[in-house]
Write a structure and sequence with these properties.
Length: about 375
């Protein structure tokens, strides 16, 4: 990242950046202890409760846009620590944006890293060269929180203050989870998705899955395998997730692509497979009577058992008198031909022929449609 990409604000805001860093140092550095993570994670969704007077402004700001890395100025002395500079496009609000909150992904979830009032932020206390993932929300005076940005990842660069020594041991994160596949477990009531396993030099210990809410990315599961499910959702509603892989040393991978999953209703009601059949209907008539041959073809791959053919004879004067190769019956204009014991199975791709003789009082139109075991057949 070129320093040319620093916002002009950095130059003017050098003192601000220093103050931000100082504030971050005065507070426990975000990498200080896992206890701090746990304490933050235990609060659940990391969105503070609204503090404004309710009922006045209930419209949240728009989500911040175009998050990018804005490396802060190089240190002028001392032992450097890792810092990340972030910039983004300002949110808008019906009343006014009062500030932003930057959340950093940790092995125990997202923790609030900074709460700047401008569209730049420095997150300090990081390890130089390691990649960190963030999201940002905007706030208004009434405490409304915008939707979170998509996860944004960038490497910590050399900053300006002394930091704790970098970690030792395994510092190589797992590879990024890929191959996100939504609704891969369709029988599950709720959402499901699958992915391709990450790899790691020491071993992937699991995954952390996050779901987007109106105001945050919240942790929703820590699967060990390569699929995730979540119940207690609104059937038919879409949910957006991403995930990271973790190793035993707490190294986090880059975030996966976002995956949008529609919550399913679970075990679907059984719907019989569509009947795949073709009918050739051939008839000839004479004064007061007619005959018809019906060729039934099973277009499917599997045998059709105990078939029943139904069709409608359009003219009220068309009456079935006698038939062959099926048990024939008629009710009004509705004609049914049921399988005989000896031809009750139509193998996949096979055909059989049935037929009948009838009486006429007028015209002899062909039936307009046929069903076989309830499924509509095509006309041959
Ligand atoms: Ca507002
Ligand atoms: Ca590793």
């Amino acid at each position: 990242m070129s320093r040319l990409s620093w916002p002009a604000a950095w130059t003017a805001a050098g003192a601000v950046a220093a103050a931000l860093l100082a504030a971050n140092i005065a507070a426990p550095p975000v990498l200080a202890t896992s206890v701090a993570y746990a304490a933050s994670a235990s609060t659940g969704e990391p969105t503070p409760q609204p503090t404004g007077s309710p009922g006045t402004d209930t419209t949240p700001p728009t989500a911040p846009g175009e998050v990018r890395a804005c490396p802060p100025p190089l240190p002028t002395g001392g032992t450097p620590q890792g810092v990340v500079g972030l910039c983004w496009t300002a949110s808008t609000d019906d009343v006014g944006v009062t500030g932003y909150e930057v959340y950093r992904l940790t092995p125990d979830g997202f923790v609030k890293a900074t709460a700047p009032t401008s569209t730049v932020s420095v997150v300090s206390g990081l390890t130089i060269g390691r990649t960190y993932t963030f999201y940002i929300v905007a706030k208004d005076a009434a405490g409304n929180t915008s939707r979170p940005t998509a996860p944004f990842s960038t490497s910590a660069v050399t900053g300006m203050y002394v930091s704790p020594s970098p970690g030792t041991g395994d510092t190589t994160p797992p590879t990024r989870p890929t191959g996100m596949q939504a609704n891969c477990l369709p029988d599950f009531k709720g959402t499901s998705f699958c992915w391709t396993a990450s790899t790691d030099d020491a071993g992937v210990t699991g995954y952390d899955v996050y779901r987007r809410t109106d105001t945050a990315w919240i942790p929703v599961g820590t699967p060990i395998g390569t699929h995730f499910t979540e119940g207690n959702l609104v059937t038919g509603q879409s949910y957006v997730y991403f995930m990271v892989a973790q190793d035993a040393a707490g190294n986090l991978s880059l975030p996966s692509d976002l995956v949008t999953v529609t919550a399913s209703g679970g075990y679907p009601t059984y719907t019989p497979p569509p009947v795949s059949c073709e009918i050739e209907y051939t008839s000839w008539s004479w004064s007061g009577g007619f005959s018809a041959n019906v060729k039934i073809t099973n277009l499917g791959q599997t045998p059709m058992n105990n078939w029943t053919l139904r069709f409608v004879l359009p003219d009220a004067g068309q009456k079935v008198a006698s038939g062959w190769s099926a048990t024939w019956s008629q009710s009004g204009k509705d004609v049914t031909a049921a399988a005989m014991p000896w031809n009750s199975v139509i193998q996949g791709g096979a055909s059989l022929q049935i037929g009948f003789n009838g009486t006429l009082t007028g015209a002899n139109p062909d039936p307009t449609g046929f069903t076989l075991n309830g499924g509509v057949c095509i006309r041959g």
